[in-house]
C-alpha cells in the first residue's frame, strides 16, 4: 500500500503544472502567480460557458429562456475573446462580470432561486477579491448585497406580463415574472442569503489577505536565499542547484586562469590584534578585493583565511583571461599597500596566476 501511494504521489508530481498546459491569454513575461490566475480564470469562464450551452437543449425550456441563454453565452464568449486580446485577468473581469451580473439579476426576477442564480451573485465578490484585490472588491460586495435585498423586496410587485414565446407545457399562460416553478424566497431565506453573502465574502477576503502576507514573506526569504546563493555561486550554477537535486555538478573547462593571493605578514599581524579588529580589517580588505573582481569582470571563488581565490574564463570563452587576472593582481597589490599605509601596518600580498584546463564543480552535499 505504501509503495502504491508513493508511486501515485510520484506520478502526480510528474504531471505538468496547469498553467503550463493552459496558456490562453498568457504573456511571455508573466510571473508564475499571474500565469496560474490566468489559467484558472480560463477554466472557470469556459466551465460556466459550457454550463450555459447545456441549458439550451434542456426539455421544457421556452424559446424566451433559450434566447436569454444565447445572450449570456455571447457575454461569456465576448469576455474570452477580450481576455485573449488584452491578456489581462482584470480586463476579463471587467468584460464578463458587469454583463453577467446584470443578466443573473434579471434571471432572478424570472426564476427566483429555482435555478440557483443567487449563488452567482454571492460568489462574484469573492472573485473580485482575487482579481481586483481586497480594497477594490468592496464595491462588488456592496452591489451584490444591495441587489439581493432589492430583488427580494420587489419580487411581489413585478408586473403580470405574458408572452407567447414563454409558453411551455409547465407555463401554458406564458407568464414572465410569475411563471410556475419560480423559487420565491421567504423572508428568512432572503436574510440568510444576505448574511451568507457577507460572511462568505469576508471569510474569503481574510483568507486571501493572510495568504498574500505569507506569500510575500516567503518571497522575501527566497530573495535573501537567492542573494546568498548568488554571492557563493555563479548564476548558471545557482539555477542548476535549484532544479537538479540529484547528481554532481562538474564541468571541464579547456582553457581558463586562476588567481590565488594571500597576505604576507598576516600571521604576525593577527597575533597582536583583537579578534574584532582583525575581522574589521579583513572585511575592509576583502571588500576592496570584491570590488576589484567585479571591476575586472572575473569570478570570485572563495576566501580561505587570508587567502583569496579568483577565476577567469570559466563560463565565457576569453583569450585574455590570464592578462585580466594579472591586471587584477596588480590592483590588489596596490590596494594592500594603500590600506596598510592607512592602518600603519607592514603587510604585503603574494599573487600567483595559473592558466590551463581545469574542472569546475560543486562538491559535497551541504
Can you describe this structure?
By secondary structure, the chain is α+β, with helices and mostly antiparallel strands. It has helices at about 1-15, 20, 30-55, 65-85, 90-110, 115-130, 135-155, 185-230, 235-245, 265-270, 275-295, 320-345, and strands spanning about 250-265, 300-305, 305-310, 350-360. A 4-stranded antiparallel sheet has the order 2-3-1-4. Strand 2 (about 300-305) and strand 3 (about 305-310) form a beta hairpin. The longest helix is centred in the middle third of the chain and has 46 residues, at about 185-230. The protein is elongated and about 105 Å long. The two termini are about 35 Å apart. The mean pLDDT is about 85.
Features:
366 residues, alpha+beta, 4-stranded antiparallel sheet, 4 strands
Order of helices and strands: HHHHHHHHHEHHEEHE
Number of DSSP-assigned strands: 4
Helix count, per DSSP? Answer: 12
Question: Which class best fits the helix and strand makeup?
Answer: alpha+beta
Strand content bin:
5-15%
Shape: elongated
What's the overall average pLDDT, rounded? 85
Helix share bin? 55-70%
Strand order of the largest sheet: 2-3-1-4
Low-confidence stretches: none
- Largest sheet, if any? 4 strands, antiparallel
Round the Cα radius of gyration to an integer and report it: 34 Å
Termini, distance in Å? 33 Å
Amino acid at each position: 500500500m505504501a509503495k502504491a501511494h508513493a508511486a501515485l504521489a510520484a506520478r502526480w508530481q510528474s504531471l505538468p503544472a496547469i498553467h503550463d498546459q493552459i496558456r490562453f491569454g498568457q504573456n511571455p513575461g508573466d510571473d508564475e502567480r499571474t500565469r496560474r490566475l490566468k489559467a484558472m480564470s480560463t477554466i472557470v469562464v469556459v466551465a460556466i460557458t459550457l454550463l450555459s450551452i447545456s441549458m439550451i437543449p434542456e426539455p421544457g425550456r421556452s424559446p424566451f429562456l433559450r434566447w436569454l441563454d444565447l445572450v449570456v453565452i455571447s457575454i461569456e464568449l465576448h469576455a474570452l475573446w477580450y481576455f485573449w486580446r488584452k491578456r489581462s485577468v482584470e480586463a476579463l473581469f471587467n468584460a464578463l462580470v458587469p454583463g453577467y451580473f446584470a443578466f443573473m439579476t434579471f434571471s432572478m426576477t424570472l426564476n427566483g432561486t429555482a435555478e440557483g442564480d443567487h449563488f452567482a451573485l454571492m460568489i462574484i465578490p469573492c472573485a473580485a477579491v482575487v482579481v481586483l484585490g481586497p480594497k477594490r472588491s468592496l464595491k462588488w460586495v456592496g452591489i451584490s448585497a444591495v441587489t439581493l435585498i432589492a430583488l427580494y423586496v420587489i419580487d411581489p410587485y413585478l408586473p403580470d406580463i405574458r408572452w407567447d414565446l414563454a409558453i411551455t407545457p409547465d407555463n401554458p399562460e406564458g407568464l414572465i415574472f410569475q411563471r410556475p416553478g419560480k423559487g420565491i424566497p421567504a423572508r428568512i431565506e432572503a436574510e440568510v442569503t444576505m448574511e451568507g453573502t457577507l460572511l462568505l465574502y469576508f471569510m474569503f477576503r481574510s483568507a486571501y489577505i493572510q495568504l498574500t502576507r505569507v506569500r510575500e514573506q516567503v518571497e522575501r526569504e527566497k530573495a535573501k536565499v537567492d542573494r546568498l546563493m548568488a554571492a557563493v555561486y555563479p548564476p548558471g550554477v545557482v539555477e542548476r542547484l535549484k532544479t537538479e537535486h540529484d547528481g554532481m555538478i562538474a564541468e571541464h573547462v579547456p582553457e581558463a586562469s586562476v588567481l590565488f593571493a594571500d597576505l604576507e605578514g598576516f600571521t604576525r599581524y593577527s597575533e597582536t590584534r583583537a579578534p574584532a579588529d582583525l575581522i574589521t580589517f579583513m572585511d575592509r580588505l576583502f571588500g576592496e578585493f570584491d570590488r576589484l573582481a567585479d571591476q575586472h569582470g572575473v569570478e570570485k571563488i572563495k576566501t580561505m583565511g587570508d587567502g583569496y581565490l579568483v577565476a577567469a574564463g570559466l563560463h565565457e570563452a576569453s583569450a585574455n583571461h590570464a592578462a585580466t587576472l594579472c591586471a587584477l593582481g596588480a590592483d590588489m597589490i596596490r590596494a594592500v599597500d594603500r590600506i596598510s599605509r592607512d592602518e600603519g601596518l607592514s603587510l604585503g600580498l603574494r599573487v600567483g596566476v595559473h592558466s590551463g584546463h581545469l574542472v569546475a564543480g560543486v562538491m559535497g552535499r551541504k
